[in-house]
Amino acid sequence: MRGVQKWYGEFQVLRDIDLEVAKGERIVICGPSGSGKSTLIRCLNSLEQYQQGSIMVDGIDLGGHAGNIQAVRAEVGMVFQQFNLFPHMTVLENCMLAPMKVRKVTRDRARELALKYLERVRIPDQADKYPAQLSGGQQQRVAIARALCMTPRIMLFDEPTSALDPEMVKEVLDTMIGLAQDGMTMLCVTHEMGFARSVADRVIFMDGGRIVEQAPPDTFFSNPRHERLREFLGQILHK
């Protein structure tokens, strides 16, 4: 991302965003509500349009034609706060749909991928159930498996645990930790600071649409430079 700016009408939600992420890097983005965190990662697969600057994803310019956007979306998986599973489809069918529609793989290959990644997120026994029969944590793990079935090169997580009951958070974070250990390139918007400490290569703090500070976890938590970050950590670490 180079000089990225975004407005909603008169309100500027992203200001002068410069960000480079290396292959295999794990980035955690945090900050107060309304700071632009979710908008930033949603711009990376054109769920949000930006007005100025440039974004290149794996060598593809998102400012180019519509085919570029589709090419990027095929390589970038995303997991949201809400699980967005199709309620009328089984877990297995939810996971098989995108590979068949987008990647044009056969039904047998899609089923093979779905079972592989349901195993990866440790819920293969739920394959024939419907989303309403699962807990929130299980549904979110299905959403992660569904994204993985597209064999993405990059995974984006937009506060994936914020809609979960506290006892369900750990199972989703454990799944994400496993992906990180596999070397997946990840950008994760979250307030789970334990996750940031243990998994992130770099933690980014946003406020007012800007990247205010970024550093490796040890430095980020032990020696924050900006007063605004010190205030934020003071609030979030002592809840």
From TrEMBL:
Residues 1-233 form the ABC transporter domain. GO terms for molecular function: ATP binding. Pfam families: ABC_tran. The keyword Transport applies. It comes from the Bacteria. The keyword Acyltransferase does not apply. Keywords: ATP-binding, Cell membrane, Membrane, Nucleotide-binding, Transport. Signal peptide: none annotated. Belongs to the ABC transporter superfamily. This is Amino acid ABC transporter ATP-binding protein. It comes from Castellaniella hirudinis.
